[in-house]
Amino acid sequence: MTSLHPPPLPDDTATIAPSASDPAVRAAGLVKRYGDLTAVDDVSFAVPRGTCLGLLGPNGAGKTTIIEILEGLKQPDAGEVVVLGRTWDHDPRAIQERIGVQLQEAEFQDKLSVYETLRLFASFYARPADLDGVIELVGLTEKRRAWVKTLSGGQKQRLSIGCALLNEPEILFLDEPTTGLDPQARRRVWEIIERLKTEGRTVLLTTHYMEEAERLADDLIIIDHGKVIARGSPATIIASLEAESVVQFAVAGRTHARLEHAELTALEGVRAVRSEGANIVLSVVHTQAVIAGLFELVRARGLELEDLRTHRPTLEDVFVSLTGKHLRDE
Which domain holds residue 294? Predict the structure, then answer.
């Protein structure tokens, strides 16, 4: 593969860069309002260099507003953003030269080829990356001469990521990079992001896909209505549910009899109980013992269970336990 890395620029950027131990991005007390709506409500975090931070939440949670503030596209009403030791107020050009941005929606000229599109965007930089290397990295070698209008949705997303890589960015901002893609195309984009992580790049990613967040993010912030409701590694956030598994079931038939939350909570090993329509969901430890106790309780009440399922806890389960709704509900 042709190297993506051109010779270093003959400037003094390296000499004034902050220490490698400093975070790549630091946000402190970010607030953004639109009239009476507070889209971002006192959000703070830091992103260590060479890691991937995921912002997870439903549509309208404030994820895109946060990342646009970090990218310098929006001004916060309060708070501070520091990117690679610089601020947008004082060093915007210095930041722009060192970050790559893939927007949630991008429009390209239909009658330009993939190569021509990348060459156009590369012309914005003094020392762009090797175009053939970028094309290979994002998996568009066979589409090198194809017009943009002939590309699939997944191929256009990969082209968008390719455009974000043309200045060899130290930080890559990806806003919902796989929204609307089929599962195969989504996984192809994931592979690109994982390869970028192995190169030591810092990645900030917004998503409302749990599997995407679990697979790609080293650290995760869950956002709801502009507020941070959970943070940590995906494993740490899931562990906060303090459950070995999640048990979901419904009571069969049209009987008026039902199981009360109190009697379910009394079963040894049940940590939490919630209702989801006709279903009851239990967060449990000692799964087999809980299921045995559940069957005993149901038999004693003269009821029957249907659609009994168990699964390991997920980020969705944590989100529901914190908000009472699913990520897909908004």
Answer: 242-312
What number of other Cβ atoms are within 10 A of residue 217's Cβ?
23
User: 269: left (phi > 0), else alpha (psi -120 to 50), else beta?
Assistant: left
Does residue 192 fall inside a structural domain?
A: yes
Write phi, then psi, for 221 (nearest 5 degrees).
Answer: -120, 125
Choosing from 183, 209, 233, the residue where a domain stops is 233
82 SS3 class: strand
Q: Considering only CA atoms, give the Rg of the chain.
A: 24
Kind of pairing between the strands at 219-224 and 52-56:
parallel
113: in domain: yes
pLDDT band, very low/low/confident/very high, at 222 (cuts 50, 70, 90): very high
The number of domains in the chain is 2
Query: Residues of 62-101 as b/e, b for ≥16 C-beta within 10 angstroms?
Result: bbbbbbbbbbbebebeebebbbbbbebeeeeebbbbbbbb
- Identify the CATH number of the domain in which residue 296 sits: 3.30.70
- Residue 227 Cα to chain centre, angstroms: 15
Is 82 in the same domain as 181?
A: yes
Q: Report the predicted TM-score, pTM, of the whole model to 2 decimal places.
A: 0.85
pLDDT, tens digit (0-9, with 9 covering 90-100), for 75-88:
999 999 999 999 99
Q: With beta carbons less than 8 A apart as the criterion, state whether 252 and 280 touch.
A: no
